[in-house]
Automatic annotation (TrEMBL):
Gene3D superfamilies in the record: HIT-like (3.30.428.10)
Source organism, top-level taxon: Bacteria
A single MF term (Gene Ontology): catalytic activity
Chain location of the short sequence motif Histidine triad motif per the record: 103-107
Residue positions of the active site: 105 (tele-amp-histidine intermediate)
Organism encoding this protein: Actinacidiphila guanduensis
Domain HIT: 10-118
The name this protein goes by in its record: Histidine triad (HIT) family protein
Length: 118
């Protein structure tokens, strides 16, 4: 069912503590941990503990958890001290946009000059 942990999902396993990660912050509904292949000095992933395949489906199925992910992205930016200089929140959606892990997650990127994308 939507929202339930998926046995083959990497981020469900990280959320369950079955695969280690460098955790930055956690709440009842979210987990924030460092990306294994960082693209900026700060590169943290914020995931909901519930499983949805992407951010839009998370927002449709569990709006509270989607809001929690966004709020936590801001908390991570403040904790990493990139909120003053500016940071980017990215939700890759679909393989054509670079999504490789199909458990909703926000990338929080900062600590270097981030070129304008759009
Ligand atoms: P996506 O490409 O789906 O938007 O983002 C998935 C991210 O997960 C990638 O940036 C990738 O580096 C990261 N990633 C993949 N496997 C692991 C892992 O085992 N641990 C951590 N911490 N990050 C991972
Ligand atoms: Zn999952």
């Amino acid at each position: 069912m939507a929202g339930e942990a998926q046995p083959d999902c990497l981020f469900c396993k990280i959320a369950a503590g079955e695969i280690p990660a460098t955790v930055v912050r956690e709440t009842d509904t979210t987990l924030a941990f460092r990306d294994i292949n960082p693209q900026a000095p700060t590169h943290v992933l914020v995931i909901p503990r519930v499983h949805y395949p992407n951010a839009a489906e998370l927002a449709a199925g569990d709006p509270g958890a989607a809001a929690d992910v966004l709020r936590e992205a801001g908390e991570v930016a403040a904790r990493e001290k990139v909120d003053g200089s500016g940071y980017r929140i990215v939700f890759n959606t679909g393989s054509g946009a670079g999504q490789t892990v199909f458990h909703a997650h926000a990338h929080v990127l900062g600590g270097r000059d981030l070129q304008r994308l759009v």
